[in-house]
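Fold Annotation — chain and its backbone
Encoding — discrete vocabulary of local shapes
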Amino acid sequence: VAYAGLLLISKAALTTGMSYFVLVVYRHVIATVVLGPLAYFLERRSRPSITIYSFSMISLLALCGTTIQQNMFFAGIKYTSPIFASAVGNTLPGMTFLMAVLLRMEKARIKTVAGKSKVLGTMICISGALVVTLYKGPAIPMLFFPPVHMKLHPHQHHNLNKDWIKGSILLSTSQIARCTWIIFQAKITKIYPAQMSLVALMCFSASLQSVVVGFIFERNPAAWALGWNLQLFTVIYTGIVISGAVYCLQMWSINKRGPVFVAMFSPVTLMVVAVLSPILLDERLHLGSIIGGILIIIGLYTVLWAKREDLQDVGNLLPIETPETTSNEVQEAGCITKSG
């Protein structure tokens, strides 16, 4: 539910003119301020010493999994919709499996039921993503008139910035960056096993990287000014609630019940966004999003079932992450915990 809020609020803020470069910078700065002290006190006895090599590896991981991923993610939301972004986000487990097989970091094991199920689920996920991207279809009429919309400028309503091809490319790039992060983060946790400190260092490194990117692409000084408005609330929400409270809750849940249990709830984000987006943002729900979303969810649970069988039969070969949104929206701490 919190990730659904992330998609809806960030879309509203971006539609009112907020720069996604600025949003990424402020989000990581706030996350660093929140997680830094917690990591310092809670892991002061178990935290290893930071070296140039370990910090370099953490910085590379932050570049791929946060700086690139987050900028592409929020840019994709700007050009599409929260419903679209949430649907594409549910393809993450299948895409991670496909990339791991292509990189020969995991075997498909197509002679087993679990292996065949993962391949089938991945194909269904990709098919659903293609449907969402290439076929909008007719708008689904609402049973009621939307009672409230977030305050947007009149010219910013229907179809503004709805460049679906550009948005789908950006979101796909975000997903690829996320998959790469998930695959290679296991090696980093062996170098630096203090999980919360690792997340805090990643946020710190991402803050520095995002500042450089932001100053290059967003040179309007007015874009960096935040007032007491929706944009400030978005920064606080994404930095404290998502990168702070939700990440910690995910870490606890994964430790208690495992990654597959957490991933099972990822379609809830899609359902919440599908209900609230037409009400709050005056978005139109299209037939293509419904058909594609159903296919993606079917593929997601097929992959998760196969992954559960693998965990029971041969152990955890590769951590699977819950999709964000979301999408930073996992999320860093969740994946780290699964490999830690």
